[in-house]
Amino acid sequence: MMNRRTVLKGALATPIAATAIGAAMNRAVLAQDEPIVVGSKDFTEQFILGNMYLLVLQDMGLETEEALNLGGTQIAHQALVSGDIALYPEYTGTALVEVLGLSVEDVMAQAQSATPVAEGTPATASATPVGGTGSAADYVYNIVKDAYQEQFNLTWLAHSQFNNTQALAVKRAWSEENGITTISQLAEIAGDLTISAPADFPEREDGLLGLQRVYDNGFADIEVLPVQPGLKYQALLDDEAEVVLAFGTDGQIAGNDLVVLEDDLGLWPPYNVAPVVQSDLIDANPDIATRFNEVTTSLTGEIMSGLNWRVDGDEKAEPADVAEQYLTENGFIGG
Amino acid sequence: MSTVREVLEFYGDRPNEVLDLAWTHVELSLIALVIASAIFIPLGILFARWQGGGSTAVGVVASLRVIPSLALIFLFYPLLGFGFQPALFALTILAGPPLILNTFAGMRSVDASILEAARGVGMNPAQVFFKVHLPLALPVIIAGMRSASVEIVASATLASFIGVRTLGQYIVTGISLLDTTYLLAGGLLIVALVLSAEIILGGIERLVKAPVA
Fold first, then answer.
1. Based on the domain organization, do A255 and A233 belong to the same domain?
2. A297, A328, B46, B109: least buried by Cβ within 10 Å?
3. Among A16-20, A137-141, A155-159, B76-80, the least confident range
């Protein structure tokens, strides 16, 4: 899934990013003959999207360099701000909370008051685990788009239809047996349950801390089984845990016939994905925006889950192959 | 960059959680060290007494050290699943090479003429072994336990990838949030545990160095 070179680059990116902060001028972009460095975070969907961007840029005849698998949001974001990479895929909700440090409740309350109820309230929008478009998605997108342009001189291109929200998922049989389809219902018995999640889950505001706050401490006594992200679902399938912290477009949800519980109190903001790009690069090459937007807006929740599952499921396909096949079959490259 | 003060405040804000995680870390490490010592020190002694193939066997064990701890932890996961016992198993295996290598070196380094003299004064083989050979090798064997304990405590961090809440939780969070307070809060405690193990085992090493035979 990752070769030695990208891992090395990921390891190097942090110190490089740290030393380069403040030197706001963008080496990768200003010099035309230097390759466009495409970054990504460290999970399957990001690898696939990063490869799509690489392939589209190559199809446009531009020189590219790959810097996928940069670790978490903070590392990728710093690499982008410092100009070590030219772009990477980011999620609106992640940018809102982790980068801009805004409160989901405040933003969603504003969204609610700013939006006519007829168009769908934020609560119902965020309750749709996959494919959440609607006004809340656009509202959050516009906030991060404006803030990124102003604070970092970075451009958010068009966002996906799909909403790769964080979510809690359970086995279908377990859901039916216990009659649980929402997080509120789960909260009532959470003290007797185990959740499989990455080890940072108990420490995160968009993780257990947020669940405890929004769902009224029902989650105070849930047991956390900390696992490497790639093993989250295995723990559920092995019956080591009843609940798993999922991403909406994880292929394992459909692949293993899991039920995503409704976030009925709206803890999580919408997480639509978009390429975040150095504004100078877009100014110099407006075509990049057009080509990327075609690809991004074609991705529905169902399509993205399917692509993720080809990598994470039994097929164990390479992200680069999955990306190339999708782009070719849909005429986004090679035309 | 966070200061020591911020780390102390971090501990002050959540003393119970810090103690819970640190205790699990210690418990896991300590049990692994005890089990590993019980298995691998006798094995090292056997290798030392095995004149024909002992050196080769130890060479093979030494080469196993190139397997990274992270790989070892995930290697046993498909067989053993998640939780305390699989983590314990991996850490125990991890402690094997330093224990075997040091025990072997300690036993082989005892001068043959001393053992000859012991037999000369009429000791039977068991007496030679327990009263002369083993006591003379013991400081080197305990030095092996010291390096094993360092590896175990450091690698217990990785148990947070297969279902055990150790101090690795702070390290993982620190990496994902790029938050140095978390990294230091976890890292400093792990260093403190390693140093404690060093001091305790170093003390025992000095005690057994007092001439017995």
1. yes
2. B109
3. A16-20
CB distance A227–B163 less than 8 Å? Answer: yes
Tens of pLDDT, residue by residue over A256-292, are 999 999 999 989 999 999 999 999 999 999 999 999 9
CATH number at residue A193: 3.40.190.120
Mutate to test the interface with A, among B82, B165, B183 (most CBs of A within 10 A): B82
Structure tokens at B62: 């030494």
Contact B178 A231 (CB under 8 A): no
Domain-terminating residue out of A236, A260, A284:
A260
Q: What is the DSSP letter of A85?
A: S
Looking at the structure of chain A, the number of domains it has is 2
Do residue A72 and residue B163 have CB atoms under 8 angstroms apart?
Answer: no
Residue A99: closest C-alpha in chain B? B177
* Average pLDDT rounded to a whole number, residues A61-79: 92
- Report the pLDDT averaged over residues A132-150: 86
CATH of the domain at A81: 3.40.190.10
Buried b (16+ CB within 10 A) or exposed e, B76-108: ebeeebbeeebbbbbbbbbbbbbbbbbbbbbbb
Question: Residue A233 in contact with residue A206, Cβ under 8 Å?
Answer: no
Looking at the fold, whether A296 and A313 belong to one and the same domain comes out as yes
ipTM surpasses cut 0.95: no
Shared-domain flag, residues A253 and A292: no
- Chain A residues 169-228 with a CB less than 8 Å from chain B: 198-200, 202-204, 224-228
Q: For residue A265, tell me if it sits in a domain.
A: no
Residues of A in contact with B176 (CB under 8 A): 71-74, 198, 200
d(CA B152, CA B9): 28
pLDDT computed for residue B83 by the predictor:
87
What is the pTM (predicted TM-score) of this model? 0.76
Structural domain of residue A220, as residue ranges? 166-260
- Which tokens sit at A269? 């903001």
Considering the domain architecture, whether residues A138 and A248 belong to the same structural domain is answered as no
| Pick from A72, A202, A228: CB nearest B178 | A72
- How far apart, in whole angstroms, are the C-alpha atoms of residue B151 and residue B32? 11
- Judge if A242 and A303 occupy the same domain: no
Q: In this structure, are A251 and A209 located in the same domain?
A: yes
CB pairs under 8 A between A and B: 68
- Report the distance separating Cα A124 and Cα A121, nearest Å: 6
Q: In chain B, what are the domains?
A: 4-209 (1.10.3720.10)
Average pLDDT, chain A: 85
